[in-house]
Known about the structure:
The complex is a heterodimer of chains A (604) and B (1117).
Chain A: H1 3-17, H2 33-36, H3 40-48, E1 83-85, H4 90-93, H5 97-100, H6 117-128, H7 136-161, H8 185-202, H9 216-236, H10 245-261, H11 275-279, E2 291-295, H12 307-314, E3 318-320, H13 322-327, H14 348-352, H15 414-418, E4 427-431, H16 432-445, H17 451-456, H18 458-465, H19 479-489, H20 495-508, H21 514-520, H22 540-543, H23 586-591
Antiparallel strand pairs in A: 1-3, 2-4
Helix pairs in contact in A: 3-7, 6-7, 7-8, 8-9, 9-10, 9-16, 9-21, 10-16, 16-20
Chain B: H1 3-18, H2 20-23, E1 26-34, H3 35-45, E2 49-51, H4 54-57, E3 62-69, H5 71-78, E4 85-89, E5 93-97, E6 104-113, E7 123-126, E8 132-134, E9 140-147, E10 151-155, E11 162-165, E12 171-176, E13 186-189, E14 192-195, E15 203-207, H6 209-212, H7 219-223, E16 230-233, E17 244-247, E18 252-254, E19 257-259, E20 264-267, E21 270-271, E22 283-289, H8 292-295, E23 306-311, E24 321-333, H9 342-355, H10 362-376, E25 384-387, E26 390-393, H11 399-403, E27 408-420, E28 424-436, E29 445-460, E30 463-478, H12 488-491, H13 496-499, E31 505-506, E32 515-516, H14 520-525, E33 529-548, E34 551-570, E35 574-575, E36 583-584, E37 592-615, E38 619-642, E39 659-681, E40 685-696, E41 705-716, E42 730-744, E43 757-759, E44 773-775, E45 787-800, E46 804-820, E47 836-855, E48 861-877, E49 897-901, E50 903-906, H15 910-915, E51 932-934, E52 956-961, E53 965-976, E54 979-990, E55 992-993, H16 998-1001, H17 1012-1016, E56 1018-1019, E57 1028-1030, E58 1046-1047, E59 1050-1061, H18 1064-1067, E60 1074-1088, E61 1106-1116
Parallel strand pairs in B: 2-5, 6-12, 20-23, 56-57
Antiparallel strand pairs in B: 1-3, 4-5, 6-9, 7-8, 7-10, 10-11, 13-14, 15-22, 16-17, 18-19, 20-21, 22-23, 24-27, 24-61, 25-26, 27-28, 28-29, 29-30, 30-33, 31-32, 33-34, 34-37, 35-36, 37-38, 38-39, 39-40, 40-41, 41-42, 42-45, 43-44, 45-46, 46-47, 47-48, 48-53, 49-52, 50-51, 53-54, 54-59, 55-58, 59-60, ...
Amino acid sequence: MKIENILLGIILALLAGCNDEFTERAPLDRLSDESVWTTEENLQIYCNNFYENFPVDNSWGPEIDALGVPNNLAYRDIISDDCVPWPSYSKTAEGLTIPAGTYITPTASGSGKWNWANMRRLNYFLDNYKRANISESKKRIYAGEILFFKALDYFEKVRLFGDVPWLSHVVNADSEELYAVRTPRSQVMDSVLNTINIAIEWLPAKGQEKTDRLNKDMALFLKARLCLYEGTYRKYHTALGLDGTEFLSEAADACETLMSSGHYSLYSTGDIENDYFNLFATTSYVGNTEMVLWKEYSFSEALGTAFSRYYIQNLLEISASRTLVEEYLCNDGLPASVSLLFLGTDSIQSEFANRDPRLKQTICNFGERLLAPGLLWNGNNPLPTLNGMSGGVALPERRCPSGFRICKWWINDQVDYDRVALGQQAFPIYRYAEVLLNYAEAKCELGQCTQSVLDNSINLIRARAGMPALNIGNVPSDAQLDGRYQQYCGYVPNPLLREIRRERRIELCFEGLRYDDLMRWKAGKFYEMPASVLGIKFVQRQFGSRVTVNKDIFLNEEGYIQPYKQFYPNGRVFDESKHYLFPIPLEDLVLNPNLVQNPGWDTP
Amino acid sequence: MKLTSVFCLMGLLQVSASVYSQQTKLSLTANNVTVRKVIDQIEEQSNFKFLYRDEVINADRRVTVEIKGNIEEVLKEVFAGTAISYRFLENNLIALTNPSEQDLLKISGKVTESSGAPLPGVSVVIRSTTQGTITGANGDFAISSVPADAILVFSFVGMRTQEVPVSGRTNINVVLEEESFGIEEVVAVGYGTQKKVNLTGAVSQVSSEVLESRAITNIGQGLQGVVPNLNVTISNGSPNTTPSYNVRGGTSFSGNSFTKGSPLILVDGFESSDMNLLNPEDIESISVLKDASSAAIYGARAAYGVMLITTKQGKRGERVKVSYNSSFQLSKPVAIPDLLDSYTMQFAQNKAKELTGQSPSASDVNKLQWMKEYMDHPETAPVYKTDGNSITWVGNTDVYGEAVRDWTPFQKHAINVSGGSEKINYYASISYQQQEGLYKISTDIHNRYNILLNLSTDVNSWFSVNYKASFNKSDYAEPYNNPGKGGWWHAMGQQGNYNINMPVKAPKDSPVGEMYTDNILSYMGYGSENKEIGETTLLSVAPTFKIAKGLNLKGDFSYESYHYRQKTVVPELENVAITWTPVISPHTTPSWLQKNVNHQDKFALNIYGDFTQTFLEKHHIYALVGFNQEWMKYNDLWSKGTDLLTSSLPVISQTLGARTTGDSESEWAIRGVFCRLNYNFDQKYLFEFNGRYDGTSKFPTDSRFKFFPSFSAGWRISEENFAENIRNVVNNFKIRGSYGSLGNQNVSNYIYFPSYGTISKVNYVFNSIRPMGITPPGLVSPDLTWETATTIDFGFDLSLWNKFDFSFDWYNRTTSDILVAGDQYPALLGTSAPTKNSGEMKSVGWEITATWRDQLQNGLKYDISLVLSDYQSEITRFDGNPEKVLSSLYVGQKMGEIWGYETMGLFQSAEEIAEAPSQRKINSGVWYPGDVRYKNLDGDEEIFTGTSTVADPGDRKIIGNSTPRYQFGINMNASWKNFDLNLFFQGVGKRDFWTDDKFYWGQMKLDGTGTWHSYENSWTTEHRDAFFPGYRYFDGNTKVQTRYLQNAAYVRLKNLTFGYTLPVNLTKQIKIEKARVYFSGQNLWERTKVVDTLDPETINGTYPIMRSYALGLQISF
């Protein structure tokens, strides 16, 4: 045999060996498109991870995202005027740029909450679920869940950005929608309303749903919240030229449906000194009729957060604001500025005397509501840990800024504290008290508030707290608060609305809603109120020689702790011409020239 | 399966090979001619060649024959009536002998070196027998009973083995030449070997001596600094650390970082799963193929170079040789952090308050006093102060002293047996090594076991088979390093309030008796464990068929099983920290146990044939054609149980809490054909072509196969006629160049499949359980294909005076079609853009090897070699960051760039701060005297990052580069009489790096404990010209900046070995051929500007580099 023939033979044989099935290798452990859209179970599994979108509490604190809406329920109020956190500590520094007015236009595409990944996953379901070969009614349950989450997602985007593109289907790399202009707010919110209405129709009634899945009531709750938001936003942001009446009516109707269902009532054992506190300090809301929806953790399923551990550590640098404290009524139902029971602000003790019992269940009076031994460090102190005081671990600036130390959400449990990753403190996602507050506000805004409306809403909340009922014929005056509205908002709500808003602020503080309230009420200028960054009246003898004024702490002329004297000597800033909306990332404006930046923010 | 056709073909070839001697018909007509003439005729007619001595076969005898037939029939006729017999040897060689006349000679002689010095200890053996002797002190030898046609084999370590035909002589003097220096040196290249002088690509080879004469624990240690531009990174000093390899710098980029890909590493032609498990002493040679032309034959996996590791084989006809090597080693860390004592630590904390105009709290002042009391009287003063139930710890634990051993032992034993007969050779080895870790408490231990058998046998004259079987195992056990606590070495140097102030255990007389505290060392000692076992088993069969003269067909089939097991047990740790109520440490609750099992099966098949031919004396041709396919399957299974029933029974089935489990499977396959054509004219002009048509399962069908060609050429100027006159000086001078492109298939397995993701447990509880979740597929581009690396290489090799060797290479490697995040789409897309082949980068560099060898008249032999290399990598195309944002990669970025502020100095007064541009955006806190003042580079009113783009970096600029430049190794050997000495220095000529390490910054970083170095050099009102800022935690001071940038250039004495070989005439009496004892020290000395706690080699390594002192013994008999 000739050598050439042999070589040729080899080459031919080898070439023939190529390009065949040997190099064809499909994934061995992944699902294919055909296998997913088949059974009811698969649709259900697809829906499961959207439940992670509910606000839950982040383990470590408000460090993830300045706008951390879904991740930080108890922490989210640090971006409101209810809170005075240290702006220099890394965990809060970014979040603090919002109330300080120094939030910077983000650069990277998809950042600053201009994120559409969740929307793609939702629309992917809507584009495909009909392929499943199961009954229409079963499909609708899961489509209802998806529509609920879609409404939830759009509601957040509208709150932050105003006009946003409305996407009905999955967009692909070649879709025109990628380069379209934004859909006007009114159109988006009409679609959101339509979406949530279908969700309400398709979701099962309470009790009919599979355990722990969405039901009609939860969708009604979301509808009430978003409709009240939109209704009041349109009413106070008159420049939009939109009428909010329909949304307000829809909100009131949704609340009424929930209120008349008989499914819910406020949690109360009659212990007005502790019921409110206890409501936020539990590992389970099973049997609690106030919860429309709550977040459950499971030790055996290895699901938990280190919330209770790190929240009290972070409270060494997050504190309540003076304006929040000032808004609590005295226990005669009158504002502190007019009540004869008010003992003045000479010390925290006098300031807290004779007030709404919820005050001491939200903010520590000195010597009351101590942490259990072993929690935190050696610095477990009956006093708030001001600068200069020992806190066990020497961390500069980890000191209670205002002296108003928050105690709402304290579960105060050594076992849960030590669960470094699997803390089990449960969280209310949708709480019935908010329905009552939404109802009263919507009715009041519609001019339909009657004594019976009050008795079915606000007064139930007041009764649980041990406060006198609000009487429509005898609404107290509060010249101080009215003056603040006049000075900072340019309008004075009628006294009844003022009291309904006050009740809301008191009842729902540190539940992550205050920022949205300020925005929809067009009350952003409240940030600039000096009292919103003041603390306790400092009484030297209570702290002995441990705290030195003008060295460890700084006071204003009236003797209140002024934690930001060095950081924000000129106070916080809210620019009404831009700060009601957030900026779109610069890269996205470049990538889609049809996208127009919100007013006042940077453009490329 | 198309393979069958290949096998059929092989069958055909076998037939044609086996029948050559049978069926080659000769036609012979001789009338009264000499036997010599007859033999010449046969040689002319056929491929047969004869070996004979005239006088033995009486070649002048005249014969008359006329015959047609095969060779045997012909010879029978020619030598009819004589005693002459014939033997068929390999390559159609026929030996003619005359047993009756064969006389046995007594031969004597002398062996010398080229310098004339006598060589004692040289082995002299009659080929194909075990009969032999060893030269004496004067190089003399005498050997009797040697057949007159025998061949004597002279061999000596370090010298080229010579075979000398006796040809009836009784006195034979031999001059042995040094081995690797000769121009006949052969280098392993892809699917074969090549003479070094004929190489046209960039190939470096390391021989076994580099790895076997000193005490190293793995191959990586032995290769560091030995081959220019083979970058070996040993990230830390842990016994379990795995060196990583890179050839010639940056290879690609992905995400936000450059990548330095690994070369393809083949052990005896097989891509081993974990070559670090090999015993370095089993290695014969390591070739590093650096440029495209030398690596091209490996195609899709060799884009970034190839390392060919060849294990040892026995030699044909070599008598049995047994070697035993062992070494014992003691090590200690190069540096131990010099931490502040507890008093100074607290004192500094209190002082930090004063720097910001505050005063220390009363409790801090008290604490300081108590610490002083304790330090003054540690025997009597209490280690804690207690107030009711709560505790204030005031101890002064010497945390490194408590935990680190003075000396860490290592031992190694290896035995190998090698030898061969005429038809068989073998090498068998077994070895064990044990290396202990540096901590006293729950010491980590690493064991390695190796077994290797290489066997080669001739079935007949045209068919031989190689077998290989190897088994490698390593196991490592250490206390579980809790991620909540950080790596031990660094964790011990921070959180001083735990690790310094708390003793490891509360004293016996404390309220809880002797009990662990929250000191980091309690986590080390209390009984958690992480254990890893890795095993590879390799079986391989490789037949070779000699089809015809110059034509061989070879094949190999290999299977490797890689098995990895890990078990982690974390029981609960009960301790006291803040109060006397014992608590379970939150980092250990719930207790848990996890097992991982990971298995890989790998199959490889190679079939290739090569052909050599010389035409018209000067035209040399070599051709190689082959086929390769490989398949790898990966399987992973893990399971975790929480809440151990008891820590004494750590199995998952005995856990009470949540149990989770998971698995994954994947596979890939490649298939390709390759070829090499080699032509050289008169050893002067050299040309080579390599090519491979390759396919991989990792790309979609349509873009799966691609052809990768490469060319290279060389010109040996020294062989030209005009160079003849200077050949005494210029022994060899060759210039060469190569160009080629290679694909890279080292990407994830299924990138072109859109597939649904699954979440095994969503973060939400439904009906008390966390169910599964599904996420939709992302977007994939349907036409993904190979990333391609194109390399141009120019180089030359020069040898002078037979003493000096110099090689230089310059290269430019461009990697194009890098898989990167595709075109940017608006965020509205909701998913990442499909990846596409778009990025491009280049690496440019050069490398030098220079060696000088000489021997002095007094017998001192020495050599010095230097390797020096450099590269820089830069991005030339990347669409993903058009704005050139600094946080991402951008076009024009050089690998390793460090952006930072320029430091002006330290603020000396509040007035200076007020007048300077505001630094509030860097840190919104208040700035005080003693803080860092940054230079205003952009002229605006504030110091900041600008928009963090190249165009607007604010007040930052490129202040350095962390790529190691001018990496070098200097290796010196000297031997005199029985002594030998090796010194090996390795280092980096230029490198910067930025550190955030708390060893460096101490309390200027959060939770830092601090070393004396930074504390004593920090700013105070009395010490205004200090190097460091005021000693307080303030982020503003530790931004990346020029003042604290580290210069990581270094030179380190990696090895010093001093050996003594016992005199042969002494050891011979106890039948020992060679016995050598040596002392070997690793990392004995270094020079660098980096503070000693940050080793310049590992840079913030989690386990310090060790200085080692070893005693070793090598015996062979």
